[in-house]
Amino acid sequence: MQQFEGGSVLIAFWIRIGAISSAIALLTAVEASPKSVDADQKQTLIKAIEKRLERRAYAFSTDFSQWPEFVGKHKEAIHAAGTEAELATALNAALGEFDLSHLALRSPKGGALARKGKRLGIGVSLRRVEQGIFITHTIKGSPAWKAGIRKGDTLTHIDGELLTDVSQLKGTLGQVRSISWIRDERNCESELRYEAFAISERSSMQWLSSEIALIRIHSFQYGFYNAARINRFFREAKNAQGIVIDLRNNRGGLSFYSRHLASKIANGKTVFGRRAKRRHQRPVGRKDASLEELAEHARDIRPLPFSCRPYEGKVVVLVDALSASAADIFPAFAQENGLATIVGERTSGALLLARTFRLPGRFQLYAPIAEILTPEGRRLENAGLEPDVKLSFEDASNDDLIYALAKELIEQ
């Protein structure tokens, strides 16, 4: 979760999203014309990170004073880093020792792209399978999409070499490579060009039947989630027997938007979640307060008071292992308040309130400043939400199967 002038953002940062961190290599490209860094710049940046972590960062039972120790564990890679991108990679490995989802360093180039809602790479989500690398989602307009790669395909070769590890898919901005995959037992091949692309898609709506609406929310990020559009969807479906809300592959975004969505199915008095900051440990009187003690002093968060009358029909929420942050807390809110049936995989477990801090050299530190707990006080960070109806990742990524199941649950 990130906090900035417009409010709080729940973003599943690309460094780690639950159990599918291997997808990062697939979404990463190396910058062209990298900028070099020297030893003094490295030490200045390391000290600046230490200052921010000690004074501003907070996550339950996390000791940020361990930063110098973790830097020492990765000193060889940090010393060897010759460019801004390489230094960011080395320092992110050190930050990864904290095992927190919303903690990462952005290079100047990465920060500039993030502000535009873009990323370098090819634009897919994946899982390793025996035959190769299975695609669970392809972002529309991304290099992979332009090459013809779609959800359900299995990547097998890159530049003629057998794909055995996602690291083989790393590339350089502007690079063109040959990629092969299998679709419905057919062999396919195309050229793949590494370039910047928008990391999400806009929300959409369709009817699964005359009585059941499907609302797909790909992201809660600014520029992709449109509250007026969501309002229109719910107006059109107000008399429907049921609504299916698809949050699969939703990496998070503004908490404001997830609370707006909550207002479409619950009134403003319903507890959406609970926010716990460093100061909420003070009433307990010690740093080693338990999660239960912390939750007692946490602040309740509620749906936005914008909807006059929430939808009262049956609701099914679809999730997968990539449903993160804002897409972690929304299904938990719906489940614990008895507002929806949750179907799919365990969610990512990447749920913290975070903000971006400016650092020397135009680097940016993305660090947690608070915990977001479920209405019942549960911590989803590194745990995720268990759905009511659990599916394998193959079934959870199969649109026909999961939509048919959602319809069946509504029609019961």
Summary tags:
single chain, 412 residues, alpha+beta, Pdz3 Domain, 2-enoyl-CoA Hydratase, Chain A, domain 1, 6-stranded mixed sheet, 13 helices, 27% strand, disordered N terminus
Please tell me about this protein's structure.
By secondary structure, this protein is an alpha+beta fold. It contains 13 helices and 24 strands. The strands form six sheets. Strands 6, 7, 8, 9, 11 and 12 form a six-stranded antiparallel β-sheet that branches. The longest helix has 17 residues. It is globular, with a radius of gyration of 21 Å.
The major pleated sheet works out as:
6 strands, antiparallel
Q: Report the helical percentage.
A: 25-40%
pLDDT < 50 runs, ≥5 residues: 1-30
Compute the number of strand runs.
24
Oligomer: single chain
Average pLDDT works out at 88
CATH architecture classification of the domain at 204-273 and 284-351 and 376-411: Alpha-Beta Complex
* CATH domain class of the domain at 204-273 and 284-351 and 376-411: Alpha Beta
Taken from the alpha-carbon principal axes, the silhouette is globular
Task: Report strand %.
Answer: 25-35%
Structural classification: alpha+beta
Query: Radius of gyration, Cα only, in angstroms?
Result: 21 Å
Please tally the helical runs, counting DSSP H or I stretches of 4 or more residues: 13
- CATH topology of the domain at 204-273 and 284-351 and 376-411, by name, is 2-enoyl-CoA Hydratase, Chain A, domain 1
